[in-house]
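Supplementary Methods, section 5.1.

A reviewer requested that the exact input to the structure prediction be made available. We therefore reproduce it here, unchanged from the version used in the analyses.
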Amino acid sequence: MATPNPDLAAIEEAERNSKFDRRRRLIGAICGPICALLVWLTPIGSLSVEGHKLLAIMTLVALWWITEPVPIPVTSLLGPTLCVVFDVVKMKDAFAAFANPTIFLFMGGFIIAKAMMVNGIDKRISYGIVSMRWVGDNPRRIFFAVGLACMLCSGWISNTATAAMMFPIALGLLEAIREMMAAKGKVISLKTYKYATGLMLMTAYACSIGGVLTPIGTPPNIIMLGFLDELCHINIGFFQWMIWGFAAMIIYFVIAYIILSRMFPADVKRIEGAHEFVEEKRKALGRWTLAQKNTMVGFLIAVVLWITPGVLSIVLGNGSAVLKTYNRLFPEAIAAMIGALVLFFLPGGTTAEGKRRSVITWKQAVEGVEWGTLLLFGGGLAMGGMMYSTGLSQWIGDNIVAWMGGNPSELTLVAVFCVVSLLMSELTSHTAATNMVGPLAIGAAVAAGFSPVPVAVGVALSASLGFMLPVSTPPNAIVYASGYVPITKMIKTGVVIDFIGIAFVTIPIVLYLVAAVM
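The structure derived from this sequence is encoded token-by-token as follows.
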């Protein structure tokens, strides 16, 4: 019987995915406007005229966010534009959310992260962790260390960038295994080797898990914080989010490590040459440069400014005049911008032509800012804000609560929106999914008489658990491209980790930890 060609199978799978994407876009392009028109033509007496128009526009935007007939950021601009054209709100109100301070928090975080990448700080952190003595040549410890490096880096820089950085390291370690096996006379194919699949999945999953640590770690976090501030005037501080995010991150990681290490164990006790491979990479980085040292200065300035309110709250109390003054002068967005702007003033050495340069150049900074994400974030905030101002959010919230029996428990409400957020993030961008689910979740919580904070945190955390499909998150797509991860394995492990994570981590955290801190 002929052995199937893994490369051919990967090509066929990619072609199937491409056909599916083309059909999805075509169906969305046709059905989006038709569904929006049908919503507008359907009489809804309990809605205002403006709310009815907005519901039709939201139908189009939501369907196009999911099916992507045009790029997601374009759809994010289309929504507010149509709201002005169809007289839902005035232009100033429609686009005010694009100047929301939270956008500048994200922008500052992008610039700091880009400086860390340009100057090699991310590599120093990752190689430093994986090359530690306790890791050695033990495959289980290597598995743990690679995941740990991914997780810690992705808390501060983009999940995609972290995955792209750690991917070659994981491939190098797998190549060391293959060479060691070949030296012993055992030929293996990494495309069918269990440990290779597990290490690739750990690289992807740990990048997504690490993103929950900080508000800037992944877009869903900052989106839900923005919704809470914009719609409910509730401000969640950087330090306060990190308390919840740290607890969730650690437990998610432990769950992922246990499941993956048992499903994809190594069949050797030592990987000869693995430690030397990583150590050579680490030594090749050389001594710390001026640019690297000053990058850390800018990063630490931002971190100190971010966590100071939490320290002041603990020491002086929430009602302290000092704390109130500090929050007025140094809100999270200003802290991020100070940390980012400092990088343009601190020296970063000299160029090849002998000219002095700063830690990061404007060109590098512009390339580091994910403008599409900022537009998507602004569009989501804009649509969410209009849902509240037109009464659409209250109408949807009341209907969701009525569908749940009229008096749902907070546990039921949180559980439903956590699952919806997870499923939506598996099918489309987790950023777009959060923009769609976030306002509905907050509206339903308010309509039911609950605090919107637990369900908002639950939606954000659940959106980061997109582990089932290559399209769910960029880290998944990156490791799937290696050919070492069969789609069936990704779906199987993703389902298990997703629902264990929601049932035993997300829901308990938002119902108990959040309630205790609020």
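The radius of gyration is 24 Å. These observations are discussed further in the main text.
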